[in-house]
Amino acid sequence: MTTGSPHLVELRDIHFGYGDRPVLEGVSLQVPRGKVTALMGASGGGKTTVLRLIGGQHRAQSGAVLFEQQDIGRLNKEQLYQARRRMGMLFQFGALFTDMSVFDNVAFPLREHAHLPETMVRDIVLMKLEAVGLRGARDLRPSEISGGMARRVALARAMALDPELMMYDEPFAGLDPISLGTAARLIRQLNDALGLTSIVVSHDLEETFRIADKVVILANGRIAAQGTPEEVRHSTDPLVHQFVSAAPEGPVRFHYPAQDAAQDYGVAKERA
Amino acid sequence: MMNFIARVGGATRAWLADVGHATALFVRLILLAPACLRRFGLVRDHMHFLGNYSLAIISVSGLFVGFVLALQGYNTLQRFGSASALGLLVALSLVRELGPVISALLFTGRAGTSLTAEIGLMKAGEQLSAMEMMAIDPVQRILAPRFWAGVLVMPILGAIFSAVGIIGGWLVGVVMIGVDAGSFWGQMRDGVDVWADVGNGVIKTLVFGFTVSFIALRQGFEAQPTPDGVARATTRTVVMASLTVLALDFVLTALMFKL
C-alpha cells in the first residue's frame, strides 16, 4: 500500500516542549522513501524527541507528523498501534528485555503479533540474528553481551516484523571504532537490501555523513540546514559551520537558559 | 497570600490528577481480566513467581504467629479456667485478622517490592518504551498478568498462613502445654463459621491482593526512571501498601463483624 508521496514521513511546523522548556520550535522536514536520513545536532537538541513524535510516544503541541499521509498525532490507540507495526525503533542502549535470552528477545514481537508456528518463529529469528552476525549468541542473556552486541540484537528485534521505517536513536554512542564502523555499514546495507526507509539520529559526524543520503541539522529547536552530506559540509551558515567543524563557540548555545549572571551571583542588588 | 492560595490550588490539582490517573489505570487493569484469561500462561508464570517465592516466609511466619498466639492465649484463658477454648481463640484470630493482614504485609515486603523494582527498572531501561514501539501495550502485556497473579495468589497465601498458624497453635497448646486435643479441635469446629469467619477472611485477602498488587505496580510504572527514582518508588510501595492494608482491615472488620 504505497501512496504517491515520495516522503514516507513528513513533519509540518512542529512545536513541542517538555513543561515550560520548548524543544522544537517550528520544525518541518521530509524523510524521503527508501533513503537514509540523518538527524544531527547537539545533545539535548530535540533529535530523539523527533523520533518519539514519529512513533507517537509524544504528541506535538502544534503541527502535524505525517506517516504515509496519516497524522500520527490524531490517530486513536488502535490506529497508532497499526502504524507502529510498520515502524522499527532501535533505542540508544538497545532496551533489550533483561529477563529473556537473545533468542526470546528477537522472537518477542513475532510471538506477540504474528501467530506463527514455533518452528517458523525459530527460522525467522535465526535469519534476523544472522543478518546482524549474532546467530551464535542466541542463547546468551542480555547481561552476558557487550553494549555493541546488545544494540545489534535490538536491531534484529526491531526488524523482526519487517518494518518499512527504521529509526535509530544514537546507534553509534559509546561504541569502539570497529563496532562503530560495523554498525554504520549494517544500517546502510539493511536499508538497501530490504528497501527500508531509515532515520538515524546521531552526532557522530564522520560515520553519519558516510552513510546518509540526506542530512538534517537541528539546532536551537529549529532546522539549521538540510541537504546531501556534501551540501551540508560546505554550508556557509555559521550555525552549521560550527557543528560540522566541531567548534566550541558559535551560535549554538553553550549555556542552558539561566537568569542574568549578575543577579545569580548576587552582584547586582535589587534596583528600586 | 495569593502565592499560598495558588500553591494549595496547584497541590490540590496535582493530587486530583494523580487520583484520576490511578483510577484510570485500576479500571484498565480490571477490564483486562478477559485478556489475561485468554493468555493464562502469563498469569500462571507470575503466580508461580510471586506465590512460590513468598511461600517460605509466609509459612515460617504463620508458624511463629501460631506459637505466640497459643502461648499468650493459654496464659489469659487459663486464668478464667477456659483453656479448652484455646483452639477457638487461635483459629478465629488467624482466620479473621492475623492471617489476611500479616500475609498481606509480608506479601508487600516480599513480592510487592520486587514488582515495583522490576517495573521501575524496565521503565528505566526503556524496555516499556521499546514495547510500546513494537505496538505492544505494556499495561496489557506486563502489568495486567502480574496484577491478576497477585490478586489470585493472595487468598492462597492467606489460607496457608492461617492453616500453618493453627498447626503452630496446636503444637504449642496441645503438644507442649498439654491442652486437651479433643476440646482444642472441637471448640474450634463449633465456634468457627465457614461463611462468617473463613469466608470473610478470604474476602479480606482478596481485597488486600487487589490493593497491594495495584499499589506496587503503579509505583513501578510511575517511578522516575533513575536509580534514585526506583528506590523511592520501592519505599513508597511498602509504606503505602502497608498503611492501606491496615486501614482497609479496620474498615472491613467493622463492616463484616458488625462490632
Q: In brief, what are we looking at here?
A:
The complex is a heterodimer of chains A (272) and B (259). With 272 residues, chain A is of the alpha/beta class. Chain A is built from ten helices and ten strands.
What does this structure look like?
The complex is a heterodimer of chains A (272) and B (259). With 272 residues, chain A is an alpha/beta fold. Chain A has one domain (32-57, 77-249): Rossmann fold (3-Layer(aba) Sandwich). Chain A is built from ten helices and ten strands. In chain A, the strands form two sheets. Chain A has a six-stranded mixed β-sheet with strand order 6-7-8-3-9-10, sandwiched between helices. A four-stranded antiparallel β-sheet of chain A has the order 2-1-4-5, covered by helices on one side. In chain A, a hairpin with a 2-residue loop joins β9 and β10 (222-227). In chain A, α3 packs across α4 and α4 crosses α5. Chain A is globular. The mean pLDDT of chain A is 87. With 259 residues, chain B is mainly alpha-helical. Chain B has one domain. Helix content of chain B is 89%, strand content 0%. Chain B has nine helices and no strands. Chain B has helices at residues 2-31, 33-38, 40-77, 86-124, 127-133, 138-177, 181-191, 194-222, 227-257. The termini of chain B are far apart. The A-B interface holds A 55, 57, 81-82, 84-85, 87-89, 91-93, 95-98, 108-109, 112-113, 154, 157, 161 and B 121-122, 125-127, 129-130, 132-137, 141.
